[in-house]
Amino acid sequence: MSRPTSACTTILVGKRASRDGSTMIARNNDGGVLNPKKFVLVRAADQPRHYQAPFSDFALELPANPLSYTSTPAATDPVGIGSASGINRKNVAMSASETITNNGEILGVDPLVPNGIGEEDLIATVLPFIDSARAGVVRLGQLVETYGTCETNGIAFADQDEIWYLETIGGHHWAARRLPDDCYVVAPNRFNLTDFDFTDPTVLFAADLPRLISEHHLNPDVNGINLRHIFGTATVKDTHYNNPRTWFGQRYFNPEIVQDPCDFDLPFCQRPAHLIGIEDLKFVLSSHYQNTPFDPYGSGTTADKTRFRPIAMSRNQEMHILQLRPDVDASIAAIHWVAFGPNTFNMVVPFYANCRDTPASYRDTATHYAPDQAFWLSNNLALLGDAHYNLYLDSVTNFASALLAACRQLQGQADAQAPQQADPASYLTKINQDLAQCYLTHSYRLMDQLLALGKPQMKIQFMMKD
């Protein structure tokens, strides 16, 4: 069995950069052409005490008394192993992971560990055992230092107050930074951390990281510490695969700033020109360089339309926005927004993390086509939508708007009523089911519209009638 490949885009939003004071961590989980995903609740009683990695010999004895958590693993994964995201019962969120790059120099000094901890192990071995975002950084950092890692990853943690972003360095090192509350991050598949002050209380790192840099003369800069310069890559691939995604996200959140899409030194974080909401995150994670010459669906030249890797693409398998809301009852604070399939043609649905189970249409994803399941329905819509993008654009836009409005109405009802329930978790489980059904209903309606618009475009036609 081989490891899955992954190529994702991460967005982080601090509480003073969001519209309602939420902390939000979001990511596209990209993979192979078709890798069915599911949305499940991993109960404490179902979690192993001895963890065995599915793709290596990595094994770990886990602490007792794990927390339950929501999870988005592959459809074939048992329990939550291989998950891409989750929120635990303490309202702590984790997204794992953003595949990043390390340069050959650091990998020569500290090689990767073939049987070290990997992407598919991260959620199951960390999220059930932490009560804050900072605690997640500390636990994962200890695991990387102790067991090593087999790959280079970026991992996001959030609670209602803080967001932390950790990147692994070589086989046994790591660095993490707390996101300033008034900032956001758009992180592609490269090393993303930049300026780093080892005396700053808002950073954490492997204990010997400063010595490693100094002893091996890894810093190319005359002044200061820039971790991207020290450990990252600056390749031709980065200029068309990675850097443009950060450029487009920062262009959307800060249209007043003019930057080069190929720039290797785009900032790690920025202060947005306007407060950021769920719709903004969905737009950026669903984007393909709209209103630029680089849009694959646009009118630019073939060279321009194929120059940059878009954020939304055919290999999107799952998108999550993990929202931790302030000033509400703990039972409704954590919202695990989920979408499946290529993101240009879907919509995220807001599921309450404090539930007793997830809806069957999201939970029981089959490994083969099943039109009544969210994963397969979303991919089916994307296949149709891609074939005649401009023809279907209005229908897809109206679908997303109508679905979000319907979900917001259900959310408003649940927010008002759940805290007064004798059993909020059971009530929210029913609301989650209603939200899932809302997605199915609106998606079937969109399918009707796409078929009606698309059939007259079929090439096998003959106008003479019997």
UniProtKB/TrEMBL annotation:
InterPro entries to which the protein is assigned, alphabetical: C69_dipept_A-like, Peptidase_C69
Known catalytic reactions: an L-aminoacyl-L-amino acid + H2O = 2 an L-alpha-amino acid
Entry annotated with the keyword Protease: yes
Coiled coil feature spans: none
GO molecular function: dipeptidase activity
Keyword Ion transport found: no
Family to which this protein belongs: Belongs to the peptidase C69 family.
Protein name (database record): Dipeptidase
